[in-house]
Amino acid sequence: MATETPLALQTPDDKDALRRALGTFATGVTIVTARAGDGTPAGFTANSFTSVSLDPPLLLVCLAHTAASYGIFRAAESFAVNVLETGQEDTAKRFASRGVDKFGPTPWEAGALGAPLIAGSLAVFDCAMHSRVEAGDHDILMGRVLGFSIHEGAALLYHQGIFKSLG
Fold first, then answer.
1. Does residue 4 lie in a domain region?
2. What is residue 48's predicted lDDT score, i.e. its pLDDT?
3. Closest Cα partner for 142 from 53, 30, 55?
4. Bridge partner list, 116
5. Residue 1 has what pLDDT?
6. What range(s) does the Flavin reductase like domain occupy (predicted)?
7. Is 15 helix (H, G, I), strand (E, B) or coil?
8. Burial profile 71-100: b = 16 or more Cβ within 10 angstroms, e = fewer
């Protein structure tokens, strides 16, 4: 039996090293959208998305307290998760930026409760807000899926700070 060398664990005090370690996990890329009280659409790029339950149908996303749209999502009663397809990298970058017109060049339609559903997405989940949980410097937004769509294609991936695709 071979002896194994113990791992040399780092403490999470080095935020840059921790971010690099977390970035080793490849994820899909989503745009999470909602509407402000006055109807103005808001959205942000996120890779912190996961299914929670099929019965009831629940999913979650994480939103930084520093996000420009934080106040809108904090008050929102609904949101949508738009899973991006390979080829939507420019859209992902636009929604990750501050101070740009995110929705002007982005075709979308309103979901059942008003959240923007982005055209050309690989999958779309239209959700009612189920719960919000404050977790450190983020909020966990849990949504109850009211409707969804799925299309053929390849998912846009994010790994070690770079957009990638399968194949």
1. no
2. 92
3. 53
4. 110
5. 57
6. 22-165
7. helix
8. ebbeebebbbbbbbbbebbebbebbeeeee
Residue 108, SS3 per DSSP: strand
Q: pLDDT by residue (tens digit) across 137-148?
A: 999 999 999 999
Regions of the chain where pLDDT drops below 70: 1-3, 167
Q: What is the CATH number of the domain that holds 100?
A: 2.30.110.10
Closest CA to 37 of 134, 114, 102, 142: 114
Percentage of the chain with pLDDT > 70? 98
| Residue 81 domain flag | yes
Distance (Å, whole) CA 61 – CA 79: 10
Q: Within a domain: residue 59? A: yes
Domain range for 139: 20-161
Domain count, the chain: 1
Q: Outline where DSSP puts E strands in the chain.
A: 27-28, 30-35, 41-46, 49-54, 57-64, 78-83, 108-110, 116-118, 123-135, 138-150, 156-159, 162-165
Report d(CA 104, CA 124) in Å as an integer: 19
Partners of 83 in beta bridges: 30, 123
The answer to whether residue 116 sits within a structural domain is: yes
Nearest to 141 by CA among 151, 149, 133: 133
Separation of alpha carbons 155 and 162, rounded Å:
14
